[in-house]
Amino acid sequence: MSKYIGPVCRLCRREGEKLYLKGARCLSQKCPFENPNKRRDFAPGQHGQGAQFKRGRSSDFFLQLREKQKARRIYGVLEAQFRRYYQRALRTRGVTGQVLLQILESRLDNVVYRLGYASSRAHARSLVTHGHFNVNGRRTDVPSVTLEPGDVIEVRPGSQGRPYFRDLKAADLSVSLPKWVSRDLNSLSGKVLNLPVRQDIDAKLNEQLIVEYYSQR
After folding, report:
1. Between helices 60-75 and 79-91, what is the axis angle to 10°?
2. Spatial distance between the Cα atoms of 209 and 65, rounded to a whole number of angstroms
3. Distance from C-alpha of 160 to C-alpha of 167, rounded to nearest angstrom
4. Closest Cα to residue 195, out of 109, 82, 121, 104?
5. DSSP codes, 128-175
6. Which band of pLDDT confidence, cut at 50, 70 and 90, is reported for residue 127?
7. pTM (2 decimals)?
8. In angstroms, what CA-CA distances link 195 with 111, 144, 160, 173?
9. Nearest residue to 207 (alpha-carbon basis) of 35, 90, 120, 109
10. What is the distance between the alpha carbons of residues 173 and 187, in angstroms, rounded to a whole number?
11. Does the pLDDT of residue 122 top 60, yes or no?
């Protein structure tokens, strides 16, 4: 399974905004976006510094590419898989951009993150890969599994005794739940109630730009 293993703070710098890729660290003074003394207001790489002053009006292609890259980085998906999600959304009835976001939101790792059982999507992906979750009673260690309404996610009984999950059960989670999932902290479980609508997806994305990017290729 391929994954990005480089520094993630440079991804936020490249997009020029906070993508919340490192959980609680993104809300602390360790985050360059929270600490102006650490922040560098230019993209990483040898062409980053000063490039924003040399470039004129951004082209349509540039805006479309950046939006696609931002979506990939938020959800932790590589290019080939992201393209497959787009092709799947294209074949599905509905508005292509919104269907694409629904597919990304319905990934198992994202649902675990939305339920508050992980501090970031990368953390959720690691927990799922290590086999700590059941889906509909069956052990599942594939983060990209797409969940459907009615699916139940729960921490496996063998994992609930681990310190992380014991502390999680005792914690007063302040994570606000989206309307399309429910959570039971006593059993460390959750359920997908329905597919998310656009208003329930808080990612700051312009999905139409992503559709325009792929429609021209």
Report:
1. 100
2. 8
3. 10
4. 104
5. HHTT-EEETTEE---TTPBP-TT-EEEE-TTTTTSHHHHHHHHS---P
6. very high
7. 0.83
8. 11, 16, 28, 23
9. 90
10. 14
11. yes
- Is 189 buried (19+), middle (13-18) or exposed (0-12) by CB count in 10 A? middle
Domains and CATH numbers, the chain: 1-56 (1.10.1050.10), 57-104+203-217 (1.10.1050.10), 107-194 (3.10.290.10)
Residue 3 near residue 78, CB atoms below 8 Å: yes
Model confidence at 141: pLDDT above 90: yes
Task: Name 189's bridge partners.
Answer: 154, 184
What pLDDT is attached to residue 28?
62
Which residues make Cβ contacts (< 8 Å) with residue 66, sequence separation at least 6?
Answer: 15
Residue 53 has pLDDT above 50, yes or no: no
Beta carbons within 8 Å of 145's beta carbon, 6+ residues apart: 107, 108, 135
Which amino acid appears at position 87 of this protein? Q
CB 200 within 8 A of CB 180: yes
The C-alpha atoms of residue 141 and residue 130 are separated, in whole angstroms, by 6
